[in-house]
Amino acid sequence: MLLAATTATLLVAGLTGCSGAGASTADQAAGTSDASGLGAQWGSCMRDAGFEVEDPSDDQVRSGTVLAPQGGDQQAFETAAARCSSDLGIEQIGSAEKDKWTREYARVASCIRDEFPDYPEQEPGGLALGPEEYPRALEDGFQERADECLRKYSPDTQSQTAR
């Protein structure tokens, strides 16, 4: 799992989930998206809205992991992400799922603090991994620690590099 520590923040506030069928096991394992899948459609919609993002996997779209590029208008990104999800028939996730991710991200932040004790407290449901929020994110070892903590405490979270 590669996090773009310099360009991305994971947000739960704009997360969406889908009640449709899940991605194939191979797609889930590879984190892939076929050209006509939900990920490609969602990515195209977001680019049409003015955001330079890679196509997420279909599973990422279904699970609701939204990656917001740093330095941009976060509210505009969340609004566009919600519109694109709605246009694709993806329903907003319930509060129980949001609560689950909020707990998972709190555990991830605590895990990061085990090696980076000055890692700041995070907004509930958010996980800031970029140098804008935490300049030490560029240091050797931070990316690896963040990846390790995400795998351990939030295994369903998948991330992508925002361009």
From TrEMBL:
Q: Which residues form the signal peptide?
A: 1-23
Q: Where is the composition biased (Basic and acidic residues)?
A: 133-154
The UniProt annotation puts the region (Disordered) at 54-73, 116-163
Keywords, in A-Z order = Signal
Q: What is this protein's name?
A: Secreted protein
